[in-house]
Amino acid sequence: MKVSEPTVIRAAGAVVWRRHGRGIDILVVHRPSRRDWSLPKGKVDPGESLPACAVREIAEETGYDVTLGMYLGIVSYRLPSGKKKEVTYYAATLVEDDAPYITARPHAHRAPASEIDDVQWLPIKEARRILTYSRDRRLLNSVADLLDQGALKTRTVIITRHARATKRTQWLRRGDGKEETRPITAHDGNSQSEALVPLLAAYGPTQVISSPWLRCIQTIEPYCQASGVPLKSKRYLTEAAHRKNARTAYRLLKKLLDHTASCTVLCTHRPVLPSLFDAIEPLCTSNTRGDLPRKDPWLKTAESIVISVAKPRGKMPRVMSIERVRPVNL
């Protein structure tokens, strides 16, 4: 049976930046087959998430491992074939030495010289001049604006709903009857938790906090095992604690949004999510407030909401981007 080709070709990439003096340099690549200069990007592999695609393609095209930061949006255009291509872009920075989450990523093979024959770090002005496509230059202008606002450097907090769990009625009938021991399902739940590993690793979490209930622990444990990042549990993230006092989960996330310097994952339950979103909303800009989920079930199983927070000079923290991500085909 012939497999039909996708009507939309999806890809991912990033504006990779690093500090240089008082400004920043941007990473650009040259493709000899197209005779163009562009931002590093590439097509999504089957079963691959967009964040995982972005870090893999950048590693293959440039030889650099990066950590994703702010979600910059989707750039759409038509290919010569007439097909539509959608490229999801992120801001990204180089991975720090000895970052543990690198071990949780699949190995990336360097692209041959026939695909990429030159990689350069250039100041924004020079990168803008050399880039072939206006769409890349527009994206670079957006990054320059963020830099001027002091909002390009961000911290990331990821809220993850646990993977698909055994049905409550089934567990109460056949299990031990305790909500805290209800597990994820052997097939779908385990598949989702394993697929979360490269997705989360793209953002570089170095702190993982979970509800101590089994279905949350089982969801996030594969990432912790693959990366070596320790797993911390907080009872404030359980359904029972949230029913007693919803403000405890709210205060935990608010503290992270205001003060954490590392990328953090919170794994919790559907009923807890509204309180976490209440902590996010006051920090949202007019551009990001509408991106928060507004109705139950808030997030699907194993779905995450990725919050990028900046602290511009002399101002309160601000949520610069909100992205919803989920392992593919789950």
Write up what this structure looks like.
This protein has 2 domains: 8-149, Nucleoside Triphosphate Pyrophosphohydrolase (Alpha-Beta Complex), CATH 3.90.79.10; 155-325, Rossmann fold. Helix 2 (124-130) packs antiparallel against helix 3, helix 5 (188-201) crosses helix 6 (214-227) and helix 8 runs parallel beside helix 9 (273-280). Strand 12 (304-310) and strand 13 (318-325) form a beta hairpin. It has 9 helices and 13 strands. The protein has helices at 50-62, 124-130, 134-149, 168-174, 188-201, 214-227, 239-244, 247-259, 273-280; strands at 8-20, 23-31, 36-38, 41-43, 66-78, 84-94, 118-123, 155-161, 207-210, 231-233, 264-268, 304-310, 318-325. The protein is of the alpha/beta class and 330 residues long.
- Given as residue ranges, the uncertain stretches (5+ residues, pLDDT < 50) are none
Question: End-to-end span in angstroms?
Answer: 23 Å
CATH superfamily of the largest domain: Phosphoglycerate mutase-like
Beta-strand segment tally: 13
Provide mean pLDDT, rounded: 94
Helix count from the secondary structure assignment: 9
Reading the helices and strands in chain order gives EEEEHEEEHHEHHEHEHHEHEE
How much of the sequence lies in strands comes to 25-35%
**Based on the structure given, which CATH architecture of the largest domain is correct?**
3-Layer(aba) Sandwich
Number of domains: 2
Determine the fraction of residues in helical runs and give it as a percent range: 25-40%
